[in-house]
Amino acid sequence: MQNAQNLISSFEFIAALMSIIIGLGVTNLLFQPMWYVPFVGQYALLAGGGLIISRRGYDRFFACYQLVTLLVWALVVRTYLVGNAMPA
């Protein structure tokens, strides 16, 4: 039962990523700015790898990796990439 729940959660995560990519594509913002595609794509690849591996240790790694990369992105990288270009 637990394995089926993990599989469903992984598919939901991949579906959410795909909806973000499709939504940006529809609004012609998919490649603006360019660094969003690899940033979202890395999570899709890791989630796909999780579907193939199906181990509890990988799930823990992915959760920690996602937490760290999202914090680094939100607090450090995005500040330098966007700078003062954000509207007030």
Structure in words:
With 88 residues, the protein is mostly helical. It has one domain (2-82). It contains three helices and no strands. The relative contact order is 0.10.
What count of domains describes the coordinates? 1
Low-confidence stretches: none
Separation of the first and last Cα atoms: 49 Å
Q: What is the makeup of the main sheet? A: none
Number of E-type strands: 0
Q: Classify the beta-strand content into a percent band.
A: under 5%
- Gross morphology: flat
SSE order, one letter for each helix or strand: HHH
Count of DSSP-assigned helices: 3
If you average the pLDDT, what whole number results?
76
Q: What class do helices, strands and sheet pairing give?
A: mainly alpha
Percent in helix: over 70%
Evaluate the radius of gyration. 15 Å
